[in-house]
Each structure stands twice: as C-alpha cells, then as structure tokens.
C-alpha cells in the first residue's frame, strides 16, 4: 500500500475529462513497487482554468505531470522549454520541473515505436499507411519518420482537414514524405502498405464489432505486413482480429500506452521503472 507522508512528492495528470485515465493505475503500481515516496493523482482541469492550474502546480511543488485531451497543445505556451520532437508533433504529454520552469516533451512517440523497433524490418523501404489524421496520428508520423520511413500515406475523412494536416508539416523534413488520401483512395495504396496503423477510435469499446476497414482489405496487403491498432480496449479489436485471420502480424495499443508512461515516469524519477509490472497492472485493471 502507498503511504502518503509529509514528504511525499506529487505527480499527476491534467485533462478534461480525466476520470477515464489509466495512468494513475500504472504509475502508482510502479511507484509502490519501487518503494519511492511519490504519489500520482488525476487533476480534472477545465480549459479556462489551465493557466491558473499550472501556476498552482509551480507554487505547490508538483514534480511533473502528464497532459491529456484537451490540453496537449494549449499547454505549450505555458512551458519554458519544449523538446524538438514535441515541437514537431505540436503536442506535449509529459511535463517536468527544471530550474528555469516547466519543460515538456511527447512520449507517445517512444510508446508508439516500442513494439516496432525490435522487429527485423528494413524500415527505410517499408511503406506505412495511417488511418486517421488526428492528434495520435501526428505522433505516429514523427515516429515513422524517426524509424526511417521515407513515404507515409495518411487517410482521412475531410479534404480540408487533410490539407491542414499536410500543411502543418510544411517547414519540416517530413513534408516530402507525407501523402494524404481520402478513404476511397485507400484501395490504391493498400497493395504497397506493409504497415497499416489505425489511429481512429473506430472499434473502441463499446463499439467493439466495428472496424475502420473491411475485413478483405488485409488480403490485399503484402506478405509479412503488420496491422497496428492504437486502441487498447477491447484487446484485440475487430481490426486486429481480421488482420490476424489473414495471417498478418498484429500489434495492439497496450504497449504504446505503457511505454509512453514508462518513459515519463523514468524522466520524473530519474531511475529505471518496472515496465512489466506497469503492463500487468493495466491487464488486471482492464481484465485482459
Ligand atoms: P483524435 O485527435 O480525435 O483523432 C481521431 C481521428 O480519427 C481523426 O482523424 C478523426 O477524423 C478520425 N475518425 C474519428 N471517427 C472516425 C470514423 N468513424 N471514421 C473515420 N475516421 C474517424 O483522437 P486521438 O487522440 O488521435 O486518438 C485516436 C485513437 O488513438 C483513440 O482510440 C485513442 O484511444 C487512441 N490512442 C491510443 C494511445 C495509446 O497509448 N495506445 C495513445 C493515443 C491515442 P476527423 O478528424 O475527420 O473527425
């Protein structure tokens, strides 16, 4: 059991809503396991209260915190420093205290890459397709570029949003790599897609029978292709079930979730953290 003492240091997560967050479960389990005097708390913060909340965190000596929807972009002007990767993504999910103020980064990229990096693939010659062009897709784009993918397809619903997405990378090295498509153009790129990533919420609990693509899509993909769903509940999703049926390698969103948290906790504690224990805490909590 976690014992709160007069010396306990505070970590947490801000969001609106924040009740659904799984971060308190995995972080407090890890903190308990390590026997360090910290506690990780959910802080519901409304958009209009963000500035006041962060000023309060500064004066209360909070050590660090995670940031979730809808504050991932809005937090940036309130920080004294942002890492280059977070700047590229345009979103911060992890913040820690420095001598000059708050510093922010984006650990979703580390989380996303964690299950891919050990795979024996020539990433420079792999063509990935991302389904969806929201917040998570941005971290995925940066992650894929870090892997070395030189061409990245992005599929979205609305032409205007797709154009904005493409434009937002205009002054970066990524602009040449990105090709945006409407959903009816997916059939034109699926034959060369060796990594198909679902970043839409389609198929997420409670709509567990839904998938962003027809099941026959996977049959058109190259041999040894990978299907990656960022969703972690249900586990596996219909998208991954269909891909597995076709003999594809599948990756669910749980490792990404745990690894983005593990990188953040390591930043705050400045020591290695028990990733397996964090994973198991979520498996138990989600009854997987
Ligand atoms: P978001 O910013 O709202 O983006 C969602 C994207 O999905 C948007 O491009 C949206 O399109 C598209 N979309 C939504 N409903 C759709 C539908 N019915 N058909 C086609 N496209 C649809 O959300 P996000 O933060 O990127 O999160 C997306 C998913 O990733 C969620 O399920 C989230 O739980 C998961 N996620 C997992 C992790 C992890 O650690 N495993 C981390 C981050 C996110 P429009 O823009 O056209 O609406």
Give a written overview of the molecule.
The protein is of the alpha/beta class and 288 residues long. The chain has two domains: 130 residues, Leucine Dehydrogenase, chain A, domain 1 (Rossmann fold, 3-Layer(aba) Sandwich); 143 residues, Rossmann fold. It has ten helices and twelve strands. Strands 2-1-3-5-6-4 form a six-stranded mixed beta sheet. Helix 9 crosses helix 10. It is globular and about 60 Å long. The mean pLDDT is 96. Bound molecules: NADP nicotinamide-adenine-dinucleotide phosphate (NAP).
CATH topology group of the largest domain: Rossmann fold
Low-confidence stretches: none
Rg from alpha-carbon coordinates: 19 Å
Percent helix among the residues? 25-40%
Taking strands numbered 1, 2, ... along the chain, how are they ordered across the largest sheet?
2-1-3-5-6-4
CATH fourth-tier homologous superfamily of the largest domain: NAD(P)-binding Rossmann-like Domain
- Average pLDDT, to the nearest integer? 96
Q: How many separate helices?
A: 10
Task: Based on Cα principal axes, name the global outline.
Answer: globular
How many structural units, i.e. domains? 2
The CATH class name of the largest domain reads Alpha Beta
Listing every helix as H and every strand as E from the N terminus to the C terminus, the arrangement reads: EHEHEEHEEHEHEHEHEEHEHH
Bound compounds, please? NADP nicotinamide-adenine-dinucleotide phosphate
Largest sheet: 6 strands, mixed
First and last CA, distance: 23 Å
What proportion of the residues form beta strands (DSSP E)?
15-25%
Helices and strands: which structural class?
Answer: alpha/beta
Indicate the CATH architecture of the largest domain. Answer: 3-Layer(aba) Sandwich
Secondary structure tally: strands? 12
């Amino acid at each position: 059991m976690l014992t709160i003492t007069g010396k306990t240091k505070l970590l947490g997560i801000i969001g609106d809503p924040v009740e659904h967050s799984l971060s308190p479960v995995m972080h407090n389990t890890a903190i308990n396991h390590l026997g360090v005097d910290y506690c990780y708390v959910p802080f519901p913060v409304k958009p209009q209260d963000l500035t006041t909340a962060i000023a309060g965190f500064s004066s209360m000596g909070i050590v660090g915190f995670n940031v979730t929807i809808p504050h991932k972009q809005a937090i940036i002007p309130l920080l004294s420093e942002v890492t280059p990767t977070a700047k590229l993504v345009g979103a911060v999910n992890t913040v820690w205290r420095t001598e000059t103020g708050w510093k922010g980064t984006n650990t979703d990229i580390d989380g996303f890459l964690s299950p891919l990096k050990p795979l024996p693939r020539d990433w420079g010659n792999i063509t990935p397709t991302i389904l969806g062009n929201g917040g998570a897709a941005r971290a995925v784009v940066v992650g894929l570029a870090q892997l070395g993918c030189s061409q990245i397809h992005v599929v979205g619903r609305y032409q205007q949003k797709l154009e904005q997405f493409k434009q937002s990378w205009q002054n970066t090295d990524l602009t040449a790599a990105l090709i945006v498509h409407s959903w009816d153009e997916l059939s034109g790129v699926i034959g060369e897609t060796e990594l198909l990533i679902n970043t839409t919420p389609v198929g997420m609990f409670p709509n567990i029978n839904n998938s962003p693509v027809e099941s026959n899509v996977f049959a058109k993909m190259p041999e040894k292709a990978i299907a990656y769903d960022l969703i972690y509940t249900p586990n596996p999703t219909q998208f991954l079930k269909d891909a597995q049926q076709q003999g594809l390698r599948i990756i669910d969103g749980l490792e990404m979730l745990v690894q983005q948290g593990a990188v953040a906790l390591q930043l705050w504690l400045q020591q290695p953290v028990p990733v397996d224990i964090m994973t198991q805490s979520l498996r138990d909590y989600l009854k997987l």
